[in-house]
Amino acid sequence: METLLQMILPSALLPALLSIVVWWANKQKPITIWALPLIWLPSYVWLIGWPSLIPAEANHWLYMVAIISVLIVLFFKSLKTVMPVMQTVLLGLALFAIAWPVLHYNFSWLLLLEMLAVTIVAYLFFNFSNKSEATSPALTMATSGGGMGLVVALGGSLLIGQLAGALASVLMAFVIVELGSKCQKPAFDLLTIVPLIQLYFLILVIARIFAELPLAPSILLLLAPLVGLIPGKRFASAFSISFVIAALAWLLLTADSSGYH
User: Fold this and answer.
1) pLDDT, position 54
2) Contact of 69 with 198, CB cutoff 8 Å
3) Which of 139, 147, 244, 238 minimizes the C-alpha distance to 185?
4) Fewest CB atoms less than 10 Å from the CB: which of 19, 120, 191, 214?
5) Per-position b or e across 91-106, b if 16+ CB within 10 A of its CB
6) pLDDT of residue 209
């Protein structure tokens, strides 16, 4: 029971409670919505400890990206061509920093191609976020983040799975808002969760490189948030759910006896 609480508290309960706080504060003063991506950080620190100021591990880059991404959105959101480029450059640099130890000791063109694919997909999303008509961004991201957490945890890394699951939980209050409106009205502008998308892509790459998440589920999870966010359709989040289910089914059907890292 104690072990179960240690797993659930930082990855689900804490961020869910903080999401309620942000939702309430946003009702009083809308500017507080920009704190939404940052409430993931307490769970992050709880799970991995205080990261090194000079990152020593792949996941130590995540908090820097979260903070810088929020600042880019806040100060450059009106520059519709500059903001997507800056977010893409940030992601590319973070991907290279995360993958550098692997590339340095065991260079792989396939890994470089995968990183390029993630960067291209991310740029398409960042560019689209300025003109989004998504009706359920919170539900879509929560579905994708929670699904990735489950797939990665079952695939071999409970820690990385918890980091992904926390991304879903920070949106919990806003998911309830969208479900209450029957996905007719988004809980917030898509720009608000650009930093969460950054974290989503980086956690997925970390899972791919260091937890050896198979390629097929990785591709499905890469596309899961986009297929729910880009169509301006009611209940478009169902597309994300289908991709997550496909990723989970692929993993389970091809599972071997691999243990947790």
Assistant:
1) 80
2) yes
3) 139
4) 120
5) bbebbebbbeeeeeee
6) 93
